[in-house]
Amino acid sequence: MTKRTKLIRLVVNSVLLVAIVALAVTVYRAGTQHSENEPITPQLASEDSGRETAETKEPMVDAGTDDVEADLKEEKTAKAETKEEKKEKPKQEEAAEETAQTEVSEEEVESTDAAASAESVETPVIETNFTEESLMNWPLEGQILLDYSMDHTIYHPTLDQYKCSKGIAIQSSVGSPVTAAANGTVTAIEDAADTGTTVVMDMGNGYECVYGQLKDLNIEIGQTVGQGTILGYVNEPTKYFTKEGSNLYFSMSKDGAPIDPIQYLP
Predict the structure, then answer these.
(1) pLDDT tens digit string along 89-123?
(2) Which of 47, 141, 165, 236 stands 20 to 30 A from 63 (CA)?
């Protein structure tokens, strides 16, 4: 073989080699671009989507769990508070009842104290200590129709006779108030034929006084009254004093013996 022929083959082989290399490079480049532009395969997309879904769901699940746990905590707290309120309610009611009872007790004590104070003010101690030197008040004002007389007889118009008189008859209109001539304790209330409704009072030290021809009494047996207290009112005269007219019969005694009341009246 000639040198020319070898040279030609060498050139041809070189050209072919270059062409092959160029084709290979072209194919490689085309494959690389196709790989870059080719869409993700369904399997890979599915896997990526699954991963994204899982990643997306996990926060949602976590967020929901947190909300549920928060709700449960709030519900437990509310129940606990409700239980505590139920426990505290009876205690509060008991405390309120105790406070009310204490207030009522205090009010009762205050009321009792006030009543005791009022009673002590309204009912002072009344002494019955009448003596020879004591003076009485007139039980009412009026003219003396019959005078005291135990040492001689005097004329009684209604009876139309002369007889002794243990007391005095003071003229007054029906309904006139009769007051206590001195401090005394009521020992008897009688309905006598001659003096009608009659009150006997103990003035102390053996002294007694008698009020006759009364009505509408304001006193009772055992009651101690002070001087000037209204005992009752003048009544219509009994049949023993019809001609004398309405009057108060008033008498006194010392240790059961009659004494002249005029001596102790101003």
Answers:
(1) 555 666 666 666 666 556 665 666 665 555 555 55
(2) 47
